[in-house]
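> run fold DUF1000-domain-containing protein
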Amino acid sequence: MASGSDNSVSSQLAGSDLDNLYGSIDKYNVHGLNLTVPEDAQAVIKPWDERDDTSSSAQSNVDDQVIIHVPFAQNVRVKSVLLKLGRGETTPRRLRIYANHSNIVDFAEAEEFTPQLNINLLEGEVGVMEYPMRSAAFANIHSLSLFFSDAVGGESLQIYYIGFRGDSRSQRRDASQKLEIPAANAADASLTDRVREKTGGQQTTAR
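> ok
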């Protein structure tokens, strides 16, 4: 879990890529909604050693909402999401994560479905921030839709880097293989987490 005295996870992961799931992401099928340049959804999926590169980013188009769909080429357990976000008025303050949809969750669906995780993002951070995810809800994942919104300035938002920590749960599959999508679990409840808060008794802390 991110420490209050450490503004990034660099000290924990510098020089180490052991838990990074970059190699499990089906990068060429990553795509987004409401981006100024649609291909930039793939540009923010970077290897760990390029996490601080700000030469490429994804920026919202008509407002301060962006959805980025990240499929995996094999089933994974996701322990945390790693983010480097725009600063100042382009900083998104909210992230909703939807798990195991065969295609991107669009904006209308995002209002109908309950996200597996609802995070209040920290503002004013320059480095990569790590947000832990509930182990039970993200134990067998083949795709995630990330819905960023609520930019500080209210007009546009920017994302520089998206990554994940976790481990592989199954043998590698063909990225073109169609998946059977399980029915949504009504028991999944909305959860708002700040990095420094614990939700009493309900959340399993990723290790």
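Residues 100 and 183 are 10 Å apart (CA to CA).
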